[in-house]
Amino acid sequence: MASEPRPSDTTPMISVAYDATESPSAVTAKEALKLGHDVTLSFSGDALIVKDKAIAKRERSKFCGVPVGAAKSELPIPFYNVLWAEVTESALLIDYATVSKSHARPRKLKYPLDGVTLEDAAAWIEELLKRAYGTSQRRKRAKVLVNPLAGPGGADKIWEHTVKPLFEAARMTLDVSRTEFHGEAIAICEKLDLDAYDVVIPCSGDGLPYEVFNGLGKRPDGRRALRQLAVAHIPCGSGNGLSCNINGTYKPGPAALAIIKGVRTPLDLMSVTQGDQRMLSFLSQSFGIVAECDLGTENLRWMGAARFDIGVVQRIFTKRTWPCEVSVKTVISDKDEIKAHYRKETNSADFHIRREGDAASSSSPNADSVSSENEAGEGLPPLKYGSVNDKLPADWETTTLDDLGNFYCGNMGYMAPNANFFAAALPNDGLMDLVINDGTISAMKYVDLMTSIESGHFFNNPLISYRKIVAYRLTPKQKTGYLSIDGEAVPFEPYQVEIHQGLGTVLSKRGRYEIPGPMGWDRLGSGVVEGKSNGTP
Ligand SMILES: Nc1ncnc2c1ncn2[C@@H]1O[C@H](COP(=O)(O)OP(=O)(O)OP(=O)(O)O)[C@@H](O)[C@H]1O
To answer: Quick one: pLDDT at residue 531?
Structure first.
């Protein structure tokens, strides 16, 4: 009787052979390997099927450590979870991840290559890797930046125990720096050898990605740097907006897998001018209740993401308002038209596979600001509307808002887990999403409004105005307060923002944001659709 194959590093007795009825090349074409009597590796749908009782038993579902359900004879491994495959020491080695909503852990299969030629094994591996990676680059070369002080702490451990093992299993090249002071990531990215890396990966909150974009943008070849080097994100902070949007998760393990399989995606970036400074913003700018809750709750940092919710409730009941003057260049102000824009962009044939260089294919009204190949190699694009120190363009609409509660401009949907403030945000439509609400609404209605963010009804709530814009200027009327750019505090002074379509590049899970869109966007007539999931990552 044949011995039962056991796929461990220490099992030398496994023989690998093709089905006797097939020639090796025919089997290769059918993408199936029969290994000894009891093991077959084949492709089916979107998974690698490992027919091997020992492995299926090892990976059986467990509840409190006790196996549940009937024992299975095969293990399906989604191609998305396959990290690498190679022949090493005359054995076929497959690295994959076991994945749940909150975890991803590396695993290995190893079968001796007895009876299979190296050529046949290589062809089969190539087919597996093609299915596992699709258009995503294999073996990405990464500059990793770990902020040991991010969020509630723990970035070092997350990197060492959760992320690094997955990246190593995917055979990525890793160059790791631990940031030691505020602003260090800017300096690192200013000097980075662009040709030595494919991606910069901050293990942090949203503060380090902000520094990465700004470091790349400060270079004399800023445009090329922002185009060539993708930015990814391992969530280690308390907000982790970037990871929620591009990885679809705020959990480090699944985020690492999203990066391994991530595709280059052009990202709109915003120029913010204030005083004589110009900086890049990738996420949002806020003034009013959100800025106060983000920056005025540093004392509650130990609470993680909950500090934001506590801050909101505290401020709603004090009925504070933040008077200011705003001047805006609006492109779309009607919510139904915004849904139609979202629908058009989302349904465009290439939406799911939009890649680097494709931003210009967008039908955006602001498409003329796309950075072109000719411009690559130069510094940041010129400011189309001047800076905060220039005269306001004549076609901007200026309003005084004495009772403002919240002025929030975003480039991505999620600002934090469960906080999809900008439901209609798109990665490269060349437009910013602007949300404004009054601060004098009743506390009950305010609580209702803020809780509607999580339920997905925020966009449709008549208490907020939601616009697609290309530029604005905000001038606070009070002397002190908080202004937040991507969650970082900036001086409480007038500032001006404009968007640059597709100036940056990120690695995203599917070439799009992992957000559900404004409720009802996928229905003709664009009415409110009750009970639809908000798709919280
Ligand atoms: N070793 C360090 N000591 C002090 N500051 C640091 C260090 N490393 C990075 N920083 C700074 O920490 C700031 C915040 O970074 P990051 O976004 O990673 O965490 P966070 O702000 O705590 O995240 P969140 O706001 O989501 O909780 C950045 O401005 C960065 O410059």
So the answer is: 37
For residue 192, give the 3-state DSSP assignment.
Answer: coil
Pairing of strands 263-274, 488-490: unpaired
Percent composition of the chain: helix, strand, coil (DSSP 3-state, to 5): 30, 30, 40
Confidence of residue 242 (pLDDT cuts 50, 70, 90): very high
Tell whether 276 and 420 lie within a shared domain. yes
The model's pTM is 0.88
- 18/45 Cα distance (integer angstroms): 21
Q: Do residues 153 and 280 share a domain?
A: no
Looking at 326-442, list the stretches that DSSP marks H as alpha helix, in order from N- to C-terminal side.
335-347
521-528 contacts at long range (C-beta below 8 A, 24 or more positions apart): 521/339, 521/342, 521/343, 521/346, 521/424, 522/343, 526/335, 526/336, 526/339, 526/340, 528/457, 528/460
Any domain includes 157: yes
414 and 309 in a common domain: yes
Q: Do the strands 414-416 and 464-476 form a parallel or antiparallel pair, or are they unpaired?
A: unpaired
Confirm whether 206 is a catalytic residue: yes
pLDDT digits (tens, 9 = 90+) for 276-322: 999 999 999 999 999 988 887 766 666 666 667 777 777 777 778 99
| Domain span including residue 208 | 141-269
Domain count, the chain: 3
- 182 alpha carbon – ligand 1 mean position (Å): 7
Residue 520 has pLDDT above 70, yes or no: yes
Query: What is the Rg, in whole angstroms, of the alpha carbon atoms belonging to the chain?
Result: 25
330 shares its domain with 435: yes
Which of 156, 178, 182 maximizes ligand 1 atoms within 8 Å of its Cβ, making it the mutation to test the pocket? 182
Instruction: Report how far ligand 1's centroid is from the alpha carbon of 239 (Å).
Output: 12
| 99-103-109 Cα angle (round to 5) | 45
User: Which residue is associated with the tokens 């700004």?
Assistant: 214
- For residue 265 and ligand 1, the question of a CB distance below 6 A is answered with no
